[in-house]
Amino acid sequence: MARTKPGFMGSRKNSRTGCMKSVRTEEEEDIDEEESEEEEDAEEEYKEEEGDGVERVEDPRWVKIKDRYKRTIDKECGFERLEVSRWKREENWGKKMWKEVTNSSPPKLIGEGVYGIGPVLAAISVGRRDFYTLYVQEGLDISSSNKKNKDKKGIEKVLKIAERISLTVKEASKHDLNMIVDNRPHQGLVLDASPLEMVGTREMEPVSINGNNGVFWVALDEVTDPQNLGAIIRSAYFFGAAGVVLCAKNSAPLSGVVSKASAGSLEIIELRSCKNMMQFLTSSVENGWRVLGGSLSKNAVPLNEVEAGEPTILVLGSEGKGLRPLVERSCTQLIRIGGNIHSGVFNDEDEGDGGVTMEQACGERMDQGGYTKELQSFLAVESLNVSVAAGVLMYHLTANSSQALVSDQKV
After folding, report:
1. Residue 123 half-sphere exposure toward CB, CA atoms < 13 A
2. Which of 121, 197, 196, 208 is nearest to 165 (CA)?
3. In this protein, which residues make up the domain named RNA 2-O ribose methyltransferase substrate binding (predicted)?
4. How far apart are CA 228 and CA 236, in angstroms?
């Protein structure tokens, strides 16, 4: 083969085809040899770095990408560009999340999940459930040096009680715990426990002459929202209710959601269930109990006119429809909470009965520079949320009962 000048390509004519064939120079062959040697050195360096515990991408092209990445860093001052540091953080986060998702295997619960520090602590302290396993988030720092973790005292109490009762404790990733509780706030604790059982009842015990003053129960007629149910149970426990009675049907199940919404009060307060709410209330009235039903009816008595000191059952209805008609008839008295709007129900049929129509109420507000016609449809919110109404009613009953008790002591 005839040699050519450096930097130029030689050519040779093929005797058979008559075409020109390119000939590589010795300089180009030397360059190829150098590049192949560099690639071999890079591969050896890549193999040496595999033993440092860092997850590598099994692709030789990664060496070139890493070399190009190193060029963006100023080696003299050690300064890293903002774009590079941001890309590095996102890459590390993506690798971590991908590893958690691919290696994720959420544990299967035997019973139901009770999550949150308050509910778990209350459940294992009272012991009304059967416990199977306590799952703790791995990497949870509860050491004394960690001052940022405000829940560490509660977690320490849970772990001490779990050790005392010989409860199995297992660590699980945060992703697995999120999968168990459907991404609800678990605070690093999930307890696998049996469902909470209620005691069936048909009526309340007969009232004694001197033993039931100021006692009240809360009866819930088909409250189906677990958040509202948990909030009502929490208020009932706070205001000192003796217990809560639920309908056996058409009520929210006593799940971990209810326990979390009640801040653990569900695990402590006495719970009963009845198959027929009307029969339960009627029989309780015969045994000397006063039954107060929260209602928006025009026959309802204002809350400030309710006398205190009698054994009482406070009945509350569902979120949308309120008390059922037969349940209202079973109450000895209907009560209502007075608000800042007109007490009459906004209905044209009640106009002749002393009620106030929507147009009249909006007209008065418009005269005061308030609402416009476009907002009339939103003024139908004439009642409180059932959990809020329960808190107001229970506070009034307990406050009046304490005042009545003080007056009786003075006499």
Report:
1. 35
2. 121
3. 113-199
4. 12
Do residues 191 and 123 lie in contact, with contact meaning Cβ atoms separated by under 8 Å? yes
Q: Alpha-carbon Rg of the chain, whole angstroms?
A: 37
Q: Which two tokens stand for residue 164?
A: 């005392």
Helix (H, G, I), strand (E, B) or coil at 56: coil
Longest Cα–Cα distance of the chain, Å, equals 133
Instruction: Provide, for the chain, the percentages of residues in helix, strand and coil under a 3-state DSSP scheme, each rounded to the nearest 5.
Output: 45, 15, 40
Domain shared by 180 and 264, yes or no: no
b or e along 315-345 (b: 16 or more beta carbons within 10 Å of the residue's beta carbon)? bbbbeeebbeeebbebbebbbbbeeeebbbb
Q: Could you tell me if 250 and 323 lie in one domain?
A: yes
Scored b (16 or more CB within 10 A) or e, 229-252 reads: bbbbbbbbbebebbbbbbbeeebb
3-state secondary structure of 288: coil
Q: Quick one: which of 211, 261, 213 has its CA closest to 398?
A: 213
What DSSP assignment string belongs to 186-199? -TTEEEEEPPPP-E
Q: Are 391 and 276 in a shared domain?
A: yes
The strand pairing partners of 13, in sequence order, are 20
In a domain, 100, yes or no: no
Tens digit of each residue's pLDDT (9 = 90 or more) over 182-226: 889 999 999 999 999 999 999 999 987 666 677 899 999 989 999
Domain range for residue 401? 199-338+383-408
Q: Which two tokens stand for residue 200?
A: 């069936």
Mind listing the pLDDT tens digit for each residue in 1-34?
A: 444 444 444 444 444 444 444 445 565 666 666 6
Give me the pLDDT at residue 207, please: 85
Long-range contacts of 33-40 (CB under 8 A, 24+ apart): 39/63
**Region at 288 (left for phi over 0; alpha for psi -120 to 50; beta for the rest):** left
Residues near 30 by Cβ (< 8 Å), separated by ≥ 6? Answer: none
Q: 318 with 224: CB under 8 angstroms?
A: yes
CA atoms within 13 A on the CB side of 95: 10
- For residue 249, give every residue at least 6 positions away whose Cβ sits within 8 Å of its Cβ, in sequence order, or none: 222, 275
Q: How far apart are CA 353 and CA 350, in angstroms?
A: 5
